[in-house]
Design goal:
By secondary structure, this protein is of the alpha/beta class. The chain is 29% helix and 21% strand. It folds into 2 domains: 168 residues, Rossmann fold (3-Layer(aba) Sandwich), CATH 3.40.50.150; 45 residues, no CATH class. The protein is globular.
């Protein structure tokens, strides 16, 4: 989904000037580096859950990760590992899906079966049995200052947000996945028309059958971003 590129659009040019200078590592980046000068770290480089086995501690001015923490078997331990890479005075920037905007009340995830946990921002309770408050787990890191934390929902259409409220609409005779595959095949030579038709079909299935929509596939953001700074006194 190229989430880092999508997020960079709303971050603005000053973000790179402030946070993506010096030695930067991008954890779980795939083919979508947050900055051309950043060092990639993905599955081919090792296990991000235990990244200090592969990369030196206190060596990076910024550790960035977009949509990777939710894939970790132990997200709290992984976050601590990533924090260990940050130099004193450096930054940790983590972006994760917002559980309400992305998962929309469904667990296991309807859109990514590799998700192992969900994240919220300052909710008192959660429908998810594997939910983590991103502010709380970041604040638990040693010698940390949260510079900024926010929910990012640019281009998100809340009228198309499922509440997983037990709707009993009649199930469709033809599954959405099959219809979507047929549309993509027939309209393959016409990308713009294919996109419009796919979205219209998804909207129909949502309104008539309660089938949730992954709006991140429509260029929307459905996530939480935290920027944390490590104190200079950290050894």
């Amino acid at each position: 989904m190229r989430e880092a590129s999508k997020t960079n659009v709303v971050r603005g040019s000053s973000f790179e000037t402030r946070y993506l200078q010096g030695r930067v590592i991008d954890i779980g980046c795939g083919q979508d580096l947050v900055s051309p000068a950043a060092e990639p770290f993905d599955l081919v480089h090792g296990d991000a859950q235990q990244i200090t086995k592969y990369r030196p501690v206190c060596a990076y001015d910024t550790v960035h990760s977009s949509h990777c923490l939710e894939h970790m078997a132990d997200p709290l331990s992984a976050l601590g590992q990533w924090w260990a890479l940050v130099k004193p005075g450096g930054y940790l920037i983590v972006v994760v899906p917002d559980e309400d905007l992305y998962e929309q009340g469904y667990w296991p995830s309807r859109f990514n079966d590799d998700h192992k946990c969900t994240f919220n921002l300052d909710k008192q309770t959660s429908w998810s049995p594997v939910s983590h408050n991103l502010r709380e787990i970041t604040n638990a890191l040693p010698d940390v200052e949260i510079i900024e934390i926010e929910r990012q929902d640019d281009s998100y259409n809340y009228t198309l947000m499922s509440q997983n409220n037990g709707r009993t609409d009649k199930k469709p005779v033809v599954p959405l996945k099959l219809v979507s595959q047929c549309v993509r095949a027939v309209l393959k030579p016409f990308p713009s028309l294919r996109q419009k038709a796919t979205w219209a079909i998804q909207d129909h299935y949502f309104h008539n059958h309660g089938v949730p929509i992954d709006q991140t596939a429509r260029q929307a953001l459905a996530q939480i971003q935290v920027i944390a700074k490590k104190g200079l006194s950290t050894n």
